[in-house]
Write a structure and sequence with these properties.
This protein is mostly helical. Helices cover 79% and strands 0% of the residues. 14% of the residues are buried. The mean pLDDT is 87. It binds fe (ii) ion (2 copies).
Length: 159
Amino acid sequence: MVFFEWKEQYELGLPHIDLQHTMIVNMINELYMSLETREEEDTTSKVLAKLLCYVEDHFTSEESAMRENNYPDQDAHLAAHDAFRVKVTRLHDRHRAGERIAGYELSEFLKDWLLEHIAQVDKDFGAFVFQLSEKAKEAFLRQNPDHPLSKNTHTRNLG
Ligand SMILES: [Fe+2]
Ligand SMILES: [Fe+2]
C-alpha cells in the first residue's frame, strides 16, 4: 500500500503547481520508505534534503505566482509556508544531530501538513487564479465577439 496516495481531488487546476504537488507526494513516499526500511542514514539524509529543497522551490514558485497576480491573501499564505519552514528545519536539525526520528512522525507530519495546506490555502489561491482567468476571458470575448474562442465557448455551452 502506498503511504501517501495522490488523488484527483487535490488538484488546483494550475498544471505547474499540481505537478509540483505530485512530485512532493512522491518524495514523501520515498522518504517514508527510506525511514521505515531503515536505510543507511546517508540515503535518508539525501532523500530528506532533496525533498526540502524541492519544497522550497515549490514555495518560491507559489509565492511569485501570488505576487504576480496581486493575490490579496498572500501574507497569510506566506506565513503558512514560513511556519512549515521553521517546523521542518527543526526536524531536519534533529535528524542531522543524529537523532533517529521515527519515519512515521516525520512522514506523517509532512503528509498531514501538505494535505491540509493544499485543501485550504493552496485551493483558495487556485480558485482566485481561475476567477481571474475567467474574468480576463470574458473581457476578451466582449471585445472580440467574433473570435473563434467565442464560438467554442458558445458551442460548449450548448452541448
Ligand atoms: Fe502553498
Ligand atoms: Fe503548494
